[in-house]
């Protein structure tokens, strides 16, 4: 497909909107590498996330085709989440963003780290 500056910008903006949300990237990194996680495992692995917010973010990722939800019909019910093949293909793109951020000038890098720290939950 051929893009113009406008269509490329709009396409990237749409992708960023689909990934925005306080917990979506954390969820993705918990599932990269073929990880299959139960809801309770994700909840424990992501300190500070409420059950309601985790459900909401997982449903949005599922609706966008990034995460798959598997319900095992048993008592008690067992629900597992994993990345779709397309969702797993995000890993190299996010790795590239991390590498890009690491190449920032030192004064910018330290400012970004401070911003990230200010968003961490209090210990």
TrEMBL record:
Stretch forming the signal peptide: none
Domain HTH hxlR-type: from-to ranges: 9-109
Record-linked InterPro entries: HTH_HxlR (IPR002577), WH-like_DNA-bd_sf (IPR036388), WH_DNA-bd_sf (IPR036390)
Classification via PROSITE patterns: HTH_HXLR (PS51118)
Keyword Transferase: no
Matching Pfam families: HxlR
Keywords: DNA-binding, Transcription, Transcription regulation
Entry protein name: Winged helix-turn-helix transcriptional regulator
Organism: Muricoccus vinaceus
């Amino acid at each position: 497909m051929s893009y113009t500056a406008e269509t490329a910008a709009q396409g990237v903006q749409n992708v960023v909107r689909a990934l925005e949300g306080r917990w979506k990237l954390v969820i993705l990194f918990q599932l990269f590498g073929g990880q299959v996680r139960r809801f309770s495992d994700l909840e424990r692995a992501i300190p500070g996330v409420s059950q309601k917010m985790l459900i909401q973010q997982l449903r949005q990722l599922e609706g966008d085709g990034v995460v798959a939800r598997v319900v095992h019909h048993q008592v008690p019910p067992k629900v597992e989440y994993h990345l779709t093949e397309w969702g797993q293909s995000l890993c190299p793109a996010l790795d590239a963003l991390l590498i890009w951020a690491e190449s920032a000038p030192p004064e910018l890098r330290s400012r970004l780290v401070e911003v990230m720290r200010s968003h961490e939950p209090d210990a």
